[in-house]
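Bit of a strange request maybe. I'm writing a small parser for structure token strings and I need a real example to test against, not something I typed by hand. Could someone generate the tokens for this chain?
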Amino acid sequence: MINIPNLEQLPAEILVGIANEHLRHNCKDRQSLFYDLDIPSTVLEQKLSDSGFEYDILANQYRSIK
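Reply from user aminoacidic:
Good idea to test on real output. This should exercise your parser:
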């Protein structure tokens, strides 16, 4: 688990980079990502969705939908 204070307050563009980095190197899926980042799934999903990102299960990463 990482410790980044106020992770949910970061801009979505930074947050998606952190999330994808963890998915690439540390996490096999979103559930382990939520645990690793110690962030509620609803918070991460909503923030990234509002900024035009969605999770691609096959690629195991968040991608822009815009």
